[in-house]
Write a structure and sequence with these properties.
Blueprint (H helix, E strand, L loop, with lengths): L1 E5 L5 H12 L4 E6 L20 E4 L15 E4 L6 H6 L1 H21 L4 E7 L5 E7 L10 H16 L5 E7 L1 E3 L10 H12 L1 E4 L6 E6 H13 L8 E6 L5 E3 H11 L4 E4 L9 E4 L2 H6 L9 H14 L14 H10 L11
Parallel strand pairs: 1-2, 1-4, 2-3, 4-5, 5-7, 6-14, 7-11, 8-10, 9-13
Antiparallel strand pairs: 10-12
The structure holds nicotinamide-adenine-dinucleotide.
Length: 347
C-alpha cells in the first residue's frame, strides 16, 4: 500500500509515520511538507523523515500530479493548524486549509486514489457547554482555523463517492510527546510550566471544556480510517475522534498535572474574559465504528510521558511561551528573517 501523508513534518506526522510503519506491513510512505517546523525537533535521535520512503519538500497549494501516481491513500495533515496562527494568517489559512485541501481531494480522485483521510477538528463545535456534541449537532466555528475545517469538510463530502472514500476525523485537542513537540497545546503547556518553573498559569478562568486525545491515539485513528470498511459509514464519513472520558475542564487538566508533579502552583486568571471556545463532545459513534482503535492512553499516562520526555531533554525554559515550541512564533521568526513571504511561501 502506498500512502501519501501531507504535513508529515509537524507534531502529529512523525508519530503517524512510526505507527503506520509498524501497523501496515510493507507500506510505502511518501511525505510532503513545506518544512516550516523542520528545525523544531525535540527529543528525537534521528530526523523523523528518515522513516518515510520518499520525502518531498513542497507546497500542497501547488502539488504536482505526478506525486499522486500510484498512491492508494492520502492522509491530509498539512494545515496552518491552530487558532493563533489562523488569526494572524487568516487569508493563508483559508488558502492552505480550505482551498488547497479541496483541490487536493479533487485531483486525488481524478488520479485514482481510493482513500482520503482528512484531519479535521472538534473545534468546529465552537461553543457547546450545554450538552456533548455529536456528529449531527450544529456546527459553530468561532475562528478562521475552525471555519477552514468546516468548509473543507462540506466540500469534500461532495467529492466523495464512485470509489473515492473520504473520512473526516474530527480530532480532539492533541497532547503528548512527539519528536516535534508543541507547547501551544493546553496540556503540553501545563506540563512544560510545571517542569520549567513549578507554575501552571491558566490564561482563562479555567472553566472551558476541552476534549483531549494523545497524539499516538490520533495515529491509531488514522490507521483505522485508512482501512475502514466503507459500508459502515458510506463513502463519506465524519466522526468525532476521542473518548467521552477525555472531556475535561481546563482547570481539571491543571490539577491532574499537579497530581503527577506535586510541587506546582496553579494560578487561575479569575478576571479573564470568558473563553467562548468551550465544548464537550460525544464520541459514541467512534466507539461503535472503531472498537479496536479506541484511545489507549489515559490522562495520567500522558502527563507522565510528557514529564519524562521534557526531563530527558533537560527542559527548563521558563519563557517557553516565547519560544519556537509555539508554532506562531516559528512562523513569525521565519517571516521576520525574510525567509517566508506574506503568503507563507519560501522567499
Ligand atoms: N494538534 C492538534 O491538537 C490537532 C487537533 C485537531 C486536528 N489537528 C489537525 O491535524 C493536522 C496535523 O496537526 P499538527 O498538530 O501536526 O500540525 P503542525 O502545525 O504541527 O503540522 C502541520 C504541518 O503542515 C505543514 N504545512 C503547512 N502548510 C503547508 C503547505 N502549504 N504545504 C505543505 N505542507 C504544509 C507544516 O510545515 C507542518 O509540518 C492539522 O491538519 C491539524 O489541523 C490537529
Amino acid at each position: 500500500m502506498k500512502i501519501l501523508i501531507t504535513g508529515n513534518m509537524g507534531y502529529v506526522g512523525p508519530c503517524l509515520v512510526s505507527h503506520l510503519k509498524t501497523s501496515i506491513p510493507n507500506v510505502i510512505l511518501i511525505g510532503l511538507d513545506m518544512g516550516y517546523f523542520a528545525t523544531c525537533l525535540s527529543n528525537s535521535d534521528i530526523l523523523p523523515e528518515c522513516r518515510t520512503d520518499i520525502q518531498y519538500f513542497g507546497d500542497v497549494r501547488k502539488i504536482k500530479k505526478s506525486i499522486l501516481e500510484g498512491v492508494d491513500a492520502i492522509v491530509h495533515l498539512s494545515a496552518i493548524s491552530n487558532d493563533p496562527m489562523g488569526k494572524t494568517y487568516e487569508a493563508v489559512t483559508m488558502d492552505i486549509n480550505y482551498k488547497a485541501s479541496v483541490q487536493l481531494a479533487k485531483t486525488a480522485k481524478e488520479m485514482g486514489v481510493k482513500t482520503f483521510v482528512f484531519a479535521s477538528s472538534c473545534s468546529m463545535y465552537g461553543a457547546a457547554e450545554d450538552s456533548a456534541r455529536t456528529e449531527a449537532s450544529p456546527l459553530n466555528p468561532l475562528t478562521a482555523y475552525a471555519k477552514s475545517k468546516v468548509y473543507t469538510e462540506k466540500d469534500i463530502n461532495e467529492i466523495a463517492g464512485d470509489e473515492f472514500a473520504v473520512t473526516s476525523l474530527r480530532f480532539s485537542t492533541a497532547c503528548g510527546m512527539s519528536p516535534r513537540l508543541r507547547l501551544d497545546l493546553v496540556l503540553n503547556d501545563f506540563v512544560a510550566g510545571a517542569i520549567a518553573s513549578n507554575q501552571i498559569t491558566i490564561l482563562s478562568d479555567g472553566t472551558p471544556w476541552r476534549p483531549l486525545i494523545n497524539v499516538k491515539d490520533m495515529a491509531r485513528a488514522i490507521e483505522w480510517a485508512i482501512s475502514r470498511d466503507t459500508t459502515s459509514g458510506g463513502e463519506f464519513l465524519a466522526v468525532n475522534v476521542g473518548s467521552n472520558e477525555w472531556n475535561y475542564q481546563v482547570k481539571d487538566l491543571a490539577y491532574a498535572v499537579k497530581e503527577v508533579i506535586p510541587d506546582v502552583e496553579v494560578s487561575i486568571n479569575k478576571n479573564a474574559a470568558p473563553d467562548k471556545r468551550s465544548y464537550r463532545v460525544n464520541f459514541d459513534y467512534y466507539k461503535k465504528l472503531a472498537p479496536d482503535h479506541q484511545p489507549k492512553y489515559n490522562l495520567i499516562d500522558t502527563i507522565e510521558e510528557l514529564r519524562d520526555g521534557l526531563e530527558s531533554m533537560g527542559f527548563n525554559d521558563e519563557k517557553f511561551r516565547d519560544s519556537n515550541y509555539m508554532r506562531l512564533n516559528m512562523l513569525n521568526q521565519l517571516r521576520g528573517k525574510g525567509l517566508l513571504n506574506e503568503n507563507l511561501e519560501w522567499a
